[in-house]
Amino acid sequence: MAPDVDSLPAIPPEFSWSPRPKFRDRRWLHAVLFLATIITTTLVGSMHYASFASDFGANDVAFSTAELVRYGLWYSGTVLTILGCHELGHYLACRYYDVDASLPFFIPFLIPLAVFQTGTFGAFIRIREPIPSKRMLFDIGIAGPIAGFAIALPAMFIGMAMSRVVLLPTHMDGINLGEPPRTRGFDLSKTVQRRGGGARTGPGTYRKAIDRRDSLSERRDR
Hints:
The protein is mainly alpha-helical and 222 residues long. The chain folds into 2 domains: 27-162, no CATH class; 182-221, no CATH class. It is built from 4 helices and 4 strands. The chain has helices at 27-53, 65-96, 134-162, 205-221; strands at 105-108, 120-124, 193-195, 198-200. A hairpin with a 2-residue loop joins β3 and β4 (198-200). The longest helix has 32 residues, at 65-96.
């Protein structure tokens, strides 16, 4: 007796595989992390500015909230622009080579200590597939540092031109990172320009200020 055809189990349709669409991101997550990092870096930037304006607590200076936020954004904008350009360099290179990658993830960071504050742990992108060739790997890897350096270098010169040299207090809470190696022996401005009774110093005065600080320290020891 032949089996009833209608009683046989249905044959499943042939499975068809389709690749996962590339460059799909949860944009809301990237936006939330970016906004949180703006807040934390602005808070840290306002702390740095208050310390800078008061000569590391040597002078009592009162600031309004608007002033602190405004000057904190100088730090926040600079740091996030450098980080963002670095990661976008990697991301755009991935787009060029059609290598699936995510938008940058910014990492906010804030601890209730004044020892060492940056406001962020940095940023990163997620590459979701193997990179096909060594040439692509090299190009994707080098694109980030080049893009970040293109912003960091002029930011360094602008920051040094807007800063002034002060002596560190003998007892100071925090980490003293010392003189930047890039400014050692780096003489862009040998003179101190005085305007309106104030002193505006250039990068070349860093070496002189540190020599003067060391000389004062030796005199105190004697």
